[in-house]
Write a structure and sequence with these properties.
By secondary structure, this protein is an all-alpha fold. It has one domain: NCX, central ion-binding region (A middle domain of Talin 1, Up-down Bundle). The protein is built from 10 helices and 2 strands. It has helices at 2-34, 38-50, 52-63, 67-93, 100-121, 128-148, 162-203, 208-233, 237-262, 270-280, and strands spanning 125-126, 265-266. A two-stranded antiparallel sheet has the order 1-2. Helix 2 (38-50) crosses helix 7, helix 4 (67-93) packs across helix 8 (208-233) and helix 5 runs parallel beside helix 9 (237-262). The longest helix has 42 residues, at 162-203. The protein is globular and about 55 Å long.
Length: 281
């Protein structure tokens, strides 16, 4: 049986690598066709795709009554993206340039959102209204970021006539949907990698504490790490930075609120502390 899990681990890694290349290609194509900067594409389309596991977990945990799991996963992921994943990318690529205004703006909004999260959960009840407010908040913050960030990095528009512009818009939408599809494949393959890793370590007798710590870091980091590393290798550092900080913002807002927006849930008193720690991290 262990052989099957080893095969699953290898297959999962292979699919993750191949799908990440497809996702980055589609995301860059959407950027070119829409005249939207790669950074903003990373902040929106790519971050949604790489955060699909967190969004799904939030919804599933809300309907099964595991409120602490929602907060722990979302807040922990928000902190992981801009600490562990960013450090690994800097280490493996040796040089990574980021727009200062983007980092400060998105990072500041993420910190503020996590502090708001702490206030929301401190009473022990995560209501549907509060969850919906966080979901809507993500759309508002993305719009504000779009308005505040300088447009200099945007690619040149494709087409000048109304027909050409309409075709370019349709192409951009299709490319964005294709990017999300491949990002979903990345997330699914990453899940296979993590589950295979769990079974292999259990079979060879690795201590549960050690294995769980490794699985936690891999499970929250693998989609972003693979996709962003691929983007950097292809010269799209802005796309990678947009995804990293965009994923953190999405974790602190839309991903956290998605589940409670559908069904209110109870959280423990320590949930607020987790949000504060993530904000300070």
């Amino acid at each position: 049986m262990i052989i099957l899990w080893v095969i699953g681990f290898v297959v999962g890694l292979t699919i993750t690598a191949l799908a990440s290349r497809k996702a980055v290609t589609a995301a860059l194509a959407a950027s070119e066709a829409s005249n939207i900067s790669p950074g903003l594409i990373g902040l929106t389309v790519v971050s949604i795709g790489t955060d699909l596991p967190e969004i799904a977990n939030s919804i599933a945990a809300a309907f099964t009554g595991h409120g602490d799991l929602i907060v722990g996963d979302a807040a922990g992921s928000a902190m992981t993206q801009v600490t562990l994943v960013l450090a690994l990318l800097c280490f493996t690529t040796h040089s990574l340039r980021a727009d200062r205004q983007t980092v400060l703006l998105v990072g500041g909004f993420t910190t503020a959102a996590l502090l708001v999260d702490a206030i929301i959960v401190q009473d022990g009840l995560f209501s549907r209204a509060e969850g919906l407010a966080l979901v809507i908040g993500w759309f508002i913050l993305v719009f504000v970021i779009y308005r505040l960030l300088p447009p200099e990095d945007s690619p040149d528009p494709i087409g000048t006539t109304p027909v050409e512009i309409q075709i370019a818009r349709k192409t951009a939408i299709l490319d964005a949907l294709l990017a999300i599809f491949w990002l979903a494949v990345v997330a699914a393959a990453a899940t296979l990698v993590v589950q295979s890793f769990v079974h292999v370590t259990d079979a060879i007798g690795v201590p549960e504490l050690v294995a769980s710590a490794l699985v936690l870091s891999i499970g929250t980091s693998l989609p972003e790490l693979v996709v962003d590393w691929t983007a950097i290798r292809r010269g799209a550092a802005a796309l990678a930075i947009g995804d990293l900080f965009g994923s953190s913002l999405l974790d602190a807002t839309l991903a956290l609120g998605a589940g409670p927006a559908m069904r209110a849930t109870i959280v423990s008193p320590g949930a607020a502390t987790i949000c504060i720690i993530a904000a300070l991290g």
